[in-house]
Amino acid sequence: MTTDSGGFRSSRHTVRCPICLDEFVWEDERQLYERIDTPVAAERYRLLEIPATTSAIKRRDRELDAWKRCPDSDGELTAPDGSRIDHYLPEAYAKYGRPLVIGFVGFAESGKSHLLASMVGEIEYGRLETLGLDADPVDAGVHQNYLSEFVDPLFNDGEAIQSDGIGTSESGAEFKDAFLLSNPDLGVTRAVTFFDISGEILAERSPYTQFILAMDALIFVVDPDVAIRDQAGGSSGWNRPLRRDNAFATVLHRFRDQEAAREKPVAIAITKCDRWRFEQPVSSWLRRDGLSPYRLARQPDLAAIWAESADAFAFLHQNHAQAWLRPYSLFSKATLHFVSATGSEAVELISPRKGDPNAPAVGVRKFARGVRPKRVLDPLAAILAMSGMLGDEARTVGGDSGRPEEGGDR
Description:
The model is unreliable at 5-10, 164-168, 230-239 and 405-409 (pLDDT under 50). The protein is globular. α2 crosses α3 (140-157). The protein is of the alpha/beta class. It has helices spanning 56-62, 112-124, 140-157, 199-202, 224-227, 246-254, 282-286, 302-318, 326-330, 378-386, and strands at residues 14-16, 23-25, 33-35, 45-47, 67-69, 88-90, 100-106, 134-137, 177-183, 188-198, 217-222, 266-270, 334-338, 347-352, 361-366. The strands form 5 sheets. It has a 7-stranded mixed sheet, with helices on both faces. β9 (177-183) and β10 (188-198) form a beta hairpin. It has a single domain (98-404), classed as Rossmann fold (3-Layer(aba) Sandwich). 22% of the residues lie in helices and 18% in strands.
């Protein structure tokens, strides 16, 4: 088995906890825990006890969805009473080497939750096979909970996701979902973990928000309703309202003095593009098949990838949304994408609570025509390419080497 860098996986390797930023040797933490489905966070994990007489095949099955407790040598995460807060990572999280931790960045209601849910739904449909990748949940329980809470209601019932923020735990952060992605042709397996990052929770500088620094790659989500809305905004034509995404600004500020932060792979996803589906250049891109530039995964169509980035850049720049383009200029490898997580806009419906006609009516936002994602996996494909999951040649995605000559330098 090899790592994402192509070298043989060492029997011992160091991993950075995405919650407390502590670095430790993964294999040194031998004690395993099992996760219990309970709302009480302190009781969610218990020691996994396997009798010594258990056969090897049974032992491997019991350990399949086991967890490890982070040693958190600094002990910075504490409860209000001063007691230490333990946090855990799936045993498969770093089993195959360094995981790829991806953060979705954007303000509340920007569409991050719908984009992530649609990505997971498309992965469930097997769409990553186009890239030659096999996908398996890192933890079956966590994955099933995410499907039940977000993906199934969205895809099966057309029900809009009501919340749009990060799922938090006592430690301040908890990943939404994670997959083991394998590229059999390259002999590479890597855990890919998703965090939903809201700028509102990052405003406070504390150990509970420093997890942002553990992100290996970032997907910045642009809500065009905010980024390119009416320039006058009801004010005098002489004035242009100052607009920006505070989540973008906060995250970029946190990375300012971090060594090598500029090298993190970045994708900028302009979401809710179905609302601009009759306007160019959005229309032409939404009509194209998703993942089309990655059909030859080891040799992506760099010209097509850069063409979309150029059109998306121009779309935002010409509409005076330069604040949403800052990640493109600050990171050395970045792509831009037109996406639609749902294919249409949700409408407000009044319906009985949970189908009970005697219950009080509640407002439920639903997609009347169902959910039809458009190009939602392209930002993820770009991140995977830049991170080495698609081979060495594909690492050039997002860099200057693939830019068409007329595009100039970044």
